[in-house]
Amino acid sequence: MNDIALETKNLVKNFGAVTAAKDVSIAVPAGAVWSLIGSNGAGKTTFVNMVTGYLHPDSGQILFQGRDITRLGPRTITRAGICRSFQIPQLCGELTTIENVLVAHAINRSATPSFFRRANETEEMGRALALLERFKIAEYRNRLMGELPAGVRKLLDIAMAMTGEPKVILLDEPTSGVATEEKFPIMDLVMEALSAEGVTTLFVEHDMEIVTRYSERVLAFYDGRIIANDAPNEVLSDPQVQRYVTGTPLTAS
Ligand SMILES: Nc1ncnc2c1ncn2[C@@H]1O[C@H](COP(=O)(O)OP(=O)(O)O)[C@@H](O)[C@H]1O
Ligand SMILES: [Mg+2]
Fold first, then answer.
1. Please, which pLDDT band fits residue 115 given cuts at 50, 70 and 90?
2. Are 32 and 201 spatial neighbours (Cβ–Cβ below 8 Å)?
3. Burial of 220 (0-12, 13-18, 19+ CB in 10 A)
4. Class of domain 4-246
5. pTM
6. How many angstroms separate the CA atoms of 119 and 116, rounded?
7. From the CB of 13, is ligand 1 less than 6 Å away?
8. Residues of the chain above pLDDT 90, percent
9. Alpha helices in 135-250 (DSSP H)
10. Is 80 in the pocket of ligand 1 (CB under 6 A)?
11. Given this model, what pLDDT does residue 121 score?
């Protein structure tokens, strides 16, 4: 069975004279892991924002498991099963790591964060801790956001998205801002956690080694359009992609 988890049909989004999305149509099978590439301003985040309800397209349609979600807002979409992380992690600096997860859980699942009533031994606390363990950041659970290394912040943001128990997740630049040597370990952890749950995954990425290693298919954005949609090697050897996205031909590795 090859169910389509997420489909977009002819999405158009203009910001004044700028066309951030022009006829963006994709169909992502359930369980797939795809990446989105493109230079700054190509329209990747706009696409993520439209699918997750943070922006509405001017025209076109977004279907989640066949259901039209085009006009729904972010909260409704999250609760339906599409979650996201952000290019810049959206963390509350006044709270600790585990408190951030508890708040995300409360927001994403529409539950009452019981830590406001009782700080320990709650079911949510157990679940939050299990998530932190899965992402190997449990040791930071009582630290405030300002004390966290960049890689831990990125992992925490994704762990927080996972509290929504998504069927589809969109990760906007999960490895941006972290040291090169941390990128592969972070992606290993993230992909292991997502594939364990069978989450359909779209991630925005600038590092072509990461793209090649972790995605089955690559969407190349340029000027609001998808100029290539194929397996990594096909996309990265496409002359248009080399001209407008990667800059130089990818050398064999
Ligand atoms: N809220 C906004 N208001 C005005 N222009 C925007 C807005 N969001 C994005 N844009 C413009 O849309 C284009 C695509 O941006 P974006 O989707 O953020 O690109 P990417 O994530 O690929 O770098 C850019 O030209 C950007 O300046
Ligand atoms: Mg972006």
1. low
2. yes
3. buried
4. alpha beta
5. 0.92
6. 7
7. no
8. 79
9. 150-162, 180-196, 208-214, 232-236, 239-241
10. no
11. 53
